[in-house]
Write a structure and sequence with these properties.
This protein has 1 helix and 16 strands. The chain has about 260 residues and is mainly β.
Length: about 260
């Protein structure tokens, strides 16, 4: 009988279990781990285990990735990716010009602009309270006030030329992909098809192994860690359930 070894991470295809439609394909995961467990109860004879009964088989499929499709986050959150127009938060550093004005790179949403003085040395530290926005026109500006018209910010007449300010504002972008994580929405169930290569020991030939998980539901727990030194590792774990035929996984080794 052939002996095999595997040094591969499966390519995964996910299908919506309700509609049968393909949802995403992954050929970039680093690790896929399929764990199995079951409960066992014993009958003892003179204090020694004599008979065993197994029940409640359980399984999980964990996938770890350092590059990933945003759909992984959406399906784990029970959400969808919406594309279109949305407000986006911005932070820009401006300096007071000779005309007591400064310009932003984009037109802000009305009422969203906040202006606060920052330390000239690092342009990060806030060194005073935010200024107050005045909407009645620049002629009414007094100390520690500003007004906004289009991209232009006008400061009061006593503002010192060259003084740096951090400007926080919202701007409208038409090219936004939005994923919303809601308190009352959770993942759907999927059929997962995993493809990998398996190598036969004696010949060294690679054969194709395909594993079908007919009913897989992503766990709602997930962690996204962003680091300045290491790539983000996204781990998604599926709970595996039996289908109507009580099948939880089907392994097929295909030889050419």
């Amino acid at each position: 009988m052939s002996v095999y070894g595997i040094k591969d991470c499966a390519n995964l295809s996910l299908f919506d279990l309700g509609t049968g439609n393909p949802v995403l394909f992954s050929d970039y995961a680093n690790v896929s781990t399929n764990e199995w467990s079951a409960e066992r109860v014993y009958a003892n004879s003179k204090g020694t285990r004599a008979i065993a009964w197994d029940y409640d088989r359980q399984s999980t499929l964990a996938v770890e990735m350092e590059v990933f499709d945003l759909k992984w986050i959406a399906l784990t959150a029970g959400s969808e990716i919406k594309k279109g127009e949305s407000n986006v938060a911005k932070r820009e550093i401006v300096r007071v010009g000779a005309g007591k004005t400064a310009s932003l790179s984009q037109v802000p949403v009305d009422g969203s602009v906040q202006v606060v003085p920052v330390n000239p040395a690092d342009e990060i530290e806030h060194i005073d309270v935010p200024l107050d926005e005045v909407t009645g026109g620049e002629d009414t500006l007094t100390s520690n006030q500003f007004s906004v018209k289009g991209k232009e910010i006008t400061f009061s007449s006593d503002a010192v030329e060259g003084t740096p300010y951090a400007v926080y504002f919202l701007t409208v972008s038409s090219q936004v992909k939005t994923i919303t994580i809601s308190a009352d929405k959770f993942p759907k169930n999927f059929k997962v098809v995993a493809d990998a290569l398996i190598r036969e020991k004696e010949t060294g030939n690679d054969e194709f192994v395909q594993i079908e998980y007919p009913n897989a539901k992503p766990q709602s727990n997930f962690t996204i860690t962003m680091s300045a030194t290491e790539p983000t590792n996204l781990s998604v774990t599926f709970d595996l359930f039996p289908n109507k035929d009580k099948e939880m996984a089907v392994y097929k080794v295909i030889s050419e």
